[in-house]
Specification:
Elements: E1 5-6, E2 20-21, E3 29-38, E4 50-56, E5 61-65, E6 69-73, E7 81-85, E8 88-93, E9 97-102, E10 107-114, E11 119-127, E12 132-133, H1 158-165, E13 167-184, E14 187-202, E15 210-220, E16 223-232, E17 239-246, E18 249-257, E19 265-271, E20 274-276, E21 281-283, E22 286-292, E23 298-311, E24 315-326, E25 332-341
Antiparallel strand pairs: 1-2, 3-4, 3-14, 4-5, 5-6, 7-8, 8-9, 9-10, 10-11, 11-13, 12-13, 13-14, 15-16, 15-25, 16-17, 17-18, 19-22, 20-21, 22-23, 23-24, 24-25
């Protein structure tokens, strides 16, 4: 594989633009991820209508719709063309899909014209809050600041070295209103709801340096919730990130090594046990998300999965419901999407 380089947050022209200095045949990866979930109450155990779209620089473009219909289209060899002007970004994947991020990341739109693959339509989003990186930084998309909690001279595993210093996350829209209008394989998929959009990038594919990774996004009442918990390969220390905003006001935006601090911290804890018969594996039924702010105020959210898709041994995504808020105050209801990337084939260990 040829070498590649990552553009720093201070050098990138557009927050939602391209961070990987692309070289053909390199091992680097970069993708732009967008999801939207209907605010209409789900019926019984059915998931709310939803759509997930990922524009990838290392594979094809994919679209997953309404937890049951999935299609893939695009072109090979990092075909995405990213053009920027100030904070405006246009990403074009061949002739069948493009995204536009404009007005300092406050607007994000996706347009699909892939009739040969059964997908036509658009998704429009209007952000609730400012864009951000994962460690309360306006300039650094990496997670190296979490290492300050370790003793000087601590040796990192190769997986940790990549996870903390060579992998980046740019969260352009942590919460938004969303309008979805697609036709997927001849069936309409149209709804209004909540949305989320980010970009991730690194020198290596995720499955080469991540052993297990939980990620969760929820919008519940006035709150936008984004948390993750990552175990790098050949490591015992877990990297956690926590973002919480209320009505557009950021309450927390932190990254840390789990267990190294009691305030300005977040936890993501799986609970329950369900049998995934397709893979004969035990998986969590949901998660408890807890935040402790710098002033000690606490927030708690209970997330329950309704439908899995996809559901494979190494990657699962759920759509479900969430309830919670500030501890001892008004509690709200909402929707959530959460994932478990599990290249290490770890057993679920719910609380």
């Amino acid at each position: 594989m040829l070498s590649t380089s990552i553009v720093s947050g201070t050098d990138v022209e557009s927050f939602d633009g391209q961070y990987v200095d692309r070289i053909a045949n390199s091992s680097a990866m970069e993708w732009w991820y967008t999801q939207a979930v209907s605010t209409a109450a789900p019926e019984g155990d059915n998931a709310p209508a939803n759509v997930v779209i990922s524009f990838n620089q290392d594979t094809n473009t994919t679209l997953q719709a309404s937890s049951s219909r999935q299609t893939t289209w695009g072109c090979q060899n990092r075909c995405g063309d990213i053009r920027t002007h100030g904070q405006n970004v246009v990403g074009t994947w061949g002739t069948s899909g493009l995204f536009v991020t404009a007005s300092n990341t406050s607007h994000h739109s996706i347009f699909v014209n892939a009739s040969e693959h059964g997908v036509l339509g658009s998704l429009m989003m209007l952000s609730n809050a400012p864009h951000h990186y994962g460690c309360n930084s306006s300039t650094d998309p990496h997670f190296s600041s979490a290492l300050s909690a370790l003793p000087q001279g601590t040796t990192l595993s190769p997986g940790e070295e990549i996870a903390y210093n060579q992998f980046g996350w740019a969260n352009a829209i942590s919460g938004s209103s969303a309008s979805v209008n697609f036709v997927v394989n001849g069936e309409p998929l149209a709804f209004s709801g909540h949305g989320y959009h980010d970009g991730k990038f690194g020198t290596q594919p995720l499955n080469t340096f991540v052993d297990s990774w939980y990620w969760l996004n929820a919008q519940v009442g006035p709150y936008d919730v984004v948390v993750s918990r990552q175990l790098p390969t050949n490591a015992t220390r877990e990297l956690t990130t926590g973002y919480l905003a209320r009505s557009g006001v950021v309450l927390q935006n932190q990254c840390s090594i789990q267990g190294t601090r009691g305030q300005d911290a977040s936890t993501l804890t799986p609970y329950g046990a369900a049998l995934d018969s397709g893979n004969n594996a035990t998986v969590p039924q949901g998660f408890v998300v807890e935040y402790t702010l710098e002033d000690g105020q606490q927030y708690s959210f209970n997330v329950t999965g309704l439908v899995q898709n996809p559901s494979t041994a190494v990657y699962r995504r759920w759509v479900g419901t969430v309830s919670g808020g500030a501890v001892g105050e008004t509690q709200y209801e909402g929707t959530s999407v959460f994932e478990w990337l599990n290249p290490g084939m770890n057993a679920s260990t719910p609380a």
